[in-house]
Hints:
It contains 4 helices and 34 strands.
Amino acid sequence: MKKIIISTMLVAMLSLIFSFSLDETANASSFREVKSVNASSLVVKQKPTTSSTTISTLKKGDFVTVFSQENGWASIQKGNIIGYVNASFLTTPKSTIKIANSKSGLVVKTVPSRSVPTSATLQYNMIVEDFGPVGNGWSFVQYGNVTGYVASNFIGTPLTKVKYVNTASGVVVRNIASTSGANIGTIVNGTEVKVHSSLFGWSYVTAGNQKGYVVDKYLSTNKPVIIVETPYKAMVRKVNALISEGRAFTDGSYTIGEIPQGEYAFISLADDFNYYSEEYLSGEIIDNEIFESFGYVYVHEAGNIQTEGLLIDLDSLSSLGVTGAKGIYEVLNNVKNYNDSGMYKVGLDIQAGYYVIESSSEAYVALLTGPIGRNDIIDNDFFDGRYALSISEGQYLQISGGTILK
């Protein structure tokens, strides 16, 4: 019996929030706008064409509810008048935020008259946009998709208080106090907002040009401390996630099969030279390389692997927000536009084209068809001074002791 009483009370409470007509609730997630006529007179057509039948004429200053606009025509409603008008003769009126101060509910009418049927009843303390008085003690207001006339003395100016958005993803703003309301924007974490009213877990807020209902639990009285994640920390977090998923591997020794076959970006973890090798169980070297910064290797999944750097599956690079190994190396070492010793993949780390490489003393350069362990040498040389070459998409440029000049 107790459960029945509680449920009945809940239904009664919710019914007080708002009682809409069917056509108003059917499109709760859509968004209607209030406009006013800015011409001395404006004809309302039955259809969106100049040749259509005129069904009414509006006067300057009349408020209308706009459902949609297309090809210069606006689908509108004013009271019982529903039709189409030339959209260029409509303007957005100024509005103020008001609060329903009638404890018995704020009655909304389609026309400013007590004798017409009620189209909606809004709950006490609900926020409406007031577009101004229309005479005889009536004002035109909007709550979500409910528009109409209310008694001016039943709406007042709300008292505001300051709160802050306190959720990392920000808070969604809706046109009504319901998850079924239209999503009209997001206010980012830490933003100061003015709260005009709160009821049933929702608060009506304003912040700059944004206004609407947000879930109250995502607001706090104290400004949250927002910890800004540095690019380095973000990269470490993302790489660790890939390691836990088996798409990246940190430095260490791995037995045959622990690292799947395929191409990997290699990222040095120390300032000095970092070693990589894959060896058959007999001890015979399949391939090996010493990296000064970053590069690319091909895992054959045919032997034991020793790596002093990170190995990251190429298909996972996009999840790190980079295109190639160079981008990871730059973030982890806090450098920009790195162009020194390394193994560059053309198209990922460097664009195809003509380049000049300059050495500080003796340097080495090689142009390869693939990563370490799966390539042929196209060109290589030791030089002291400058070395010019053209590189193409998909090739690999390996430099030791030199700097790329464009």
